[in-house]
């Protein structure tokens, strides 16, 4: 009985967290870590467009750095399709919006 009354006492063994509370805490943490999308200057945007066009024509493998609100990610592959109406490309079986591309690197 003595151990139950030490430290945090009886409350130590009866702690719990509801699922809704856990979700709320995680959402709050994500909101704090959310990043703003960088604005690319026109010259950088032109470089990206030229690199994409050249890679598509020459069937070159490229690596794209894609913006995401919490963590940037990359996709590597050959451009399979260009959708100029939807402003997107198909690379590695994934549609990628052109506005989300931060950088293009040619793979050699």
Please give the CATH architecture of the largest domain. Roll
Strand segment count: 5
Question: Unreliable segments (pLDDT under 50, ≥5 consecutive)?
Answer: none
Please report the first level of CATH classification, the CATH class of the largest domain: Mainly Beta
Distance between the termini: 70 Å
Q: How many helical stretches?
A: 2
Shape field: elongated
Task: Give me the secondary-structure category.
Answer: alpha+beta
Q: Tell me the number of structural domains.
A: 2
Helical content band: 25-40%
Strand content bin: 25-35%
Q: Mean pLDDT across all residues, rounded? A: 85
Topology as a string of helices (H) and strands (E): HHEEEEE
CATH topology of the largest domain: SH3 type barrels
What composes the largest sheet? 5 strands, antiparallel
Strand order across the biggest sheet?
Answer: 4-3-2-1-5
Pfam families: YolD
Organism: Cohnella silvisoli
Protein name: YolD-like family protein
Task: Explain briefly what this protein structure is.
With 108 residues, this protein is of the alpha+beta class. It is 30% helix and 29% strand.
How would the blueprint of this fold be written?
Elements: H1 19-33, H2 42-58, E1 61-66, E2 73-83, E3 88-91, E4 94-97, E5 101-106
Antiparallel strand pairs: 1-2, 1-5, 2-3, 3-4
Can you characterise this structure?
This protein folds into 2 domains: 3-33, no CATH class; 42-106, Roll (SH3 type barrels), CATH 2.30.30.100. The chain is 30% helix and 29% strand. The chain has 2 helices and 5 strands. The protein has helices spanning 19-33, 42-58, and strands at residues 61-66, 73-83, 88-91, 94-97, 101-106. The chain has a 5-stranded antiparallel β-sheet with strand order 4-3-2-1-5, covered by helices on one side. The longest helix has 17 residues, at 42-58. It is elongated. This is YolD-like family protein. It holds the Pfam family YolD. It comes from Cohnella silvisoli.
